[in-house]
Give the backbone structure.
Amino acid sequence: MEVFLPIAQVFVNPIEILFLSAIVGVLSGLFGVGGGFLMTPFLIFLGVPPAYAVANEANNILATSVSGSTTHYLKNTLDYKMGLMIVIGGTIGTSLGIYTFTYFKGIGKIDTVISLAYMYILAIIGTLMLVESLGEIDKAKKNLLIKKKLHVHYWIHGLPFRMRFPKSKLYESAFTPIIIGLLVGFIAAIMGIGGAFILVPAMIYIIKMPTKLVPGTSLFVTIFVSVIVTFLHSFNYGSIDLMLVFMLVIGSIIGVQLGQKLGERIDSSGLRALLAILLLIVGIAIAYDSFFAEEIQKETVKVLNAELNFFSLFIKQFSEEMPFFYGLFSIMFAVFLGVAAAFIRRFISNFKKKMSVKS
Amino acid sequence: MGVMTDQMQFSNVKIINKLQNLKATFIKTGIFLSLAAYWGVILVGTFITFN
């Protein structure tokens, strides 16, 4: 069974998309990352043209981030002050990233830059996290109690304008989260992803936030970054396909809820090692794709408007005739689905608690 | 006789500990070798692509 995507102009199998987005959603909920660095290559492998894969995945990340961060808001595991500081840096970084993206696109080197950036960033972070988490597991096995400093101070911690972050119990320079946000925004704009897979390790290792506040705050920041990316793609290239977004959002929202439940039952040092291995696997897959494999692309199909069903025709005309409102609608659609999913999860969880108390 | 049994038990514990340490070292070496191979592929691939 295949479905035609009116904007991307390709046929896709909805079951494949739902299944893959659910798996990425589970990993997303487990590690507090947006999942774009996994789902975008998957969509390209499934035949969706890269420009459309990036844009629609950004919209999907928005929905999952809204869902995840609403759940964390309801659980009170979100540091707004820290999140807003990172968003300030992220906005500046995204603008700089978009400028750089346009430059490399102009000279025709954007594909190489994106592949290399993906590969090296994933490899560096994955290696560092794996080495550190293996060390932690080793120490835990030997029951060693090594006297550690409360915080390891890097140059970034010596910056001025120190302020208190009561929720995270930190006293740090405002520039620390802003610089991290700037870097994340820059990389996210170039690679067309939410950027949480860089943000999570940065929050743990550089800002030194409590691990329980990291997933919620990183999802909160990802909302803003993905809104900018979605707006940009929708207005500039008209590449948001609501049919694809709907499939992606449904799969990933179910997956995220499952991932968050699973995350509550797994040891955090084990989680870090798993995330590190995941990053390394994606890195090597991109390396294989860049160095050895030929580009896999499905041919786009030309379908006349008369052949489209009512819903597909409506999406196509809405996108072409009112790109501003279509972009806005795509964002509102993702936000609505995300919030609805979080509240449904809350309702089910409360219902289960009531039932267990009664019995 | 009793002394001999204690010594034997003590050496058995030592051997088990040594085997466990050896296993951990083996796993760690494997992981670090995999990481080295991983980075080798990435760096050589980049070099070949740019040439």
User: Anything to note?
Assistant: Residues 17 and 248 of chain A are 7 Å apart (CA to CA).
